[in-house]
Design goal:
The protein is α+β, with helices and mostly antiparallel strands and 181 residues long. Helix content is 41%, strand content 27%. 17% of the residues are buried.
Length: 181
Amino acid sequence: MSPAIDAVHSALARFQEGYESRDLSALDAFMDLFDADAGIELIGIGASQRGGSEWFEGHRAIREIIESDWQYWGQVHIDVAGAKITVLDRVAWLSTTGTLEQTETFDQALPLYLEQMVAILEDGEKDADDRLLEASHFGVRRLRERLKGPGHRWPFVLSAVLVRRDAGWRFHTIHWSMPVD
């Protein structure tokens, strides 16, 4: 491997370590993995439009979703060794797979999920049928997760773009995706 690929691989390994340890006291240091550019993005598994649900832009929004992930989401297992990494000058992109292992935190997150359902139902930009359909889909997915129980592993794909700055390789854009079930 080239030194640049090794360095990007190392950044991905540190990203995995953060999601593994879930140490909220280390969250600010973890955010150093992200580029200083205000246009950074983290696109979650439920995103369908820029600025909508699960599409996070900027440091503050990304920090908030990562904090929520670490508290409620489950255990993330990224295939760091299997990542395909490409580097061109000061930009790198990668893709890999992983699993999200469901933990006991689901019940702790239930109030958050109910708030999210209410937000879907109160979205005045969609008609009533669309809101009911989206809230129903969201609720059925949460129910399915709850019925699978702790230990179930949901597969995902992770892709990312990193940029090289003086301080090293930093994440600019991350996209999580899960297969439709």
